[in-house]
Amino acid sequence: MTAMRRPRSASDDRELRLWKVGRALTATFAAAVLAAGSVFYTLVVLLDVREIDSTAKLDPSTLFDLVKLSFGVVAGAGALVALVVAYRRQRVDEAGAHRDATRLHTERFTTAVSQLGDDSPAVRLGGVHALAGLADDAPDDSLRQTCIDVLCAYLQLPFTPDPGDDSAHQEEHHRYLALRKVRHTILRLIGDHYRRPKGTYRSWQGCDLDLTGVTIDGDMDFSNATFSDGTVSFDDATFSDGAVSFDGATFSDGTVSFVSATFSGSEVIFGSATFSGSWVHFDGATFSDGTVAFNGATFSGGKVDFSDATFSGGTVHFSYATFSGGWVLFSDATFCGGTAHFRDATFSEGTVYFGHTAFSGSTVSFNRSTFSDGTVSFDDATFSGGTVSFDPASGPAPGGLLVAVSTPARATVTLPLIWLPSNP
Asked: Residues 306, 244, 242, CA angle at the centre, nearest 5°?
């Protein structure tokens, strides 16, 4: 799916909206009278004044006090007028400053985009850094998002594959490497900005990131990044080379999607990542080569979905992972090749669902895993080939597993003795 732009909030709208002077003054005077009346009434109650002597006469002293009070009221009214005028002037100045900043940003944006479309890779590289700087200095979130969208769109553009480095294609090969450097620079800058704490200068956390259909054929570092808001999409992306690291990343809110992504030759690492409140989608993804590692990852909330994923080659690691909350779904997934490790994993809470999963040709290991609480289900799973081992594992047998493997267990499935019917 394509990352969806969040609706623009009212707080992002900097358009100047002011009441007319007469309306503003009327409202200000009314508020002042109401406040004064409230204070007077409160003082009367606190001083326990019940009534005023109706026989009292107006003497010179009282008259002088009333005159002073009248001048005080006039002075207060003048102060209120000055306050309203000063407020309006400040708002007009702020709106003018914002317009000037937006105009300057637009001029710089136009220049940077033209550089990004230049024939020279060096000029394009300058445009990449200019757009990243514009995103950092943007007057509001909408303009920052526009800069990020342009960088993502550049990564989505089709590119000519490497023609090879033989003498006949040497010039094309050098140009391919130069343009590849531009794409890799964008990926590096994205990782750098998502590591910065949200709300600080140069942080892009909370912005949408649309990398739908991109080809990641080199190193990309999202280690210790935080995805706490917004929508991040790697749908239909291809990870074909290099190392992509989400090591220590935090997925605590928002949506991160790898729907129908292809992991065919790279090393993608989610080691020590924390999935605590976000929706992370790997449904329909294909793991056909390379290594995808969730070693030591913590699944404590939210939803991580591997439904309909195909594990047909390479190695997928969930070793030492902790499933302590939320939902992790492998429903209708297919393990038909390669190796999947759940060794030393802990299933203590939450729901891990292998319902309707097909184990037909992979080597899948749950050795030394601990099943202590929560729900782990193998309802209607099929074991028709490959090797699946749960020995030695501790705790009660996962739901539906013994029925799925039949009694006695298939030769390709190894179970702990304590799970077998003859050894209650």
From this structure: 120
Q: 400-418 burial string, b = 16+ CB within 10 Å, else e?
A: bbbebbeeebbebbbbbee
Q: Do 311 and 334 meet the contact criterion of CB atoms below 8 Å apart?
A: yes
- With tokens 């782990």, the residue in question is 376
Amino acid at 419: W
Q: Inform me whether the pLDDT recorded for 354 exceeds 80.
A: yes
Contact residues for 135 (Cβ-Cβ < 8 A; gap 6+): 144, 147, 148, 151, 193, 204
* Separation of alpha carbons 320 and 369, rounded Å: 8
pLDDT, tens digit (0-9, with 9 covering 90-100), for 259-274: 999 998 889 999 999 9
386: which residues sit within 8 A by CB, 6+ positions away? 335, 336, 359, 360, 361, 362, 363, 364, 412
Q: Which of 332, 369, 378, 333 is nearest to 351 (CA)?
A: 378
Q: What is the pLDDT of residues 43-68, one digit of tens each?
A: 445 545 445 455 555 566 755 665 56
pTM more than 0.85: no
Give 349's strand partners: 324
Mean pLDDT of 251-265: 91
In angstroms, the CA 244 to CA 216 distance is 8
DSSP letters, 113-151, are HHHHT-SSHHHHHHHHHHHHHHHHH-SSHHHHHHHHHHH
Q: What's the confidence (pLDDT) of residue 16?
A: 52
Q: Measured in whole angstroms, how far is the alpha carbon of residue 315 from the centre of its chain? A: 27
258 within 8 A of 3, measured Cβ to Cβ: no
Rounded to whole angstroms, the Cα distance separating 4 from 113 reads: 22
Give phi and psi for 389, each to the nearest 5. Answer: -125, 130
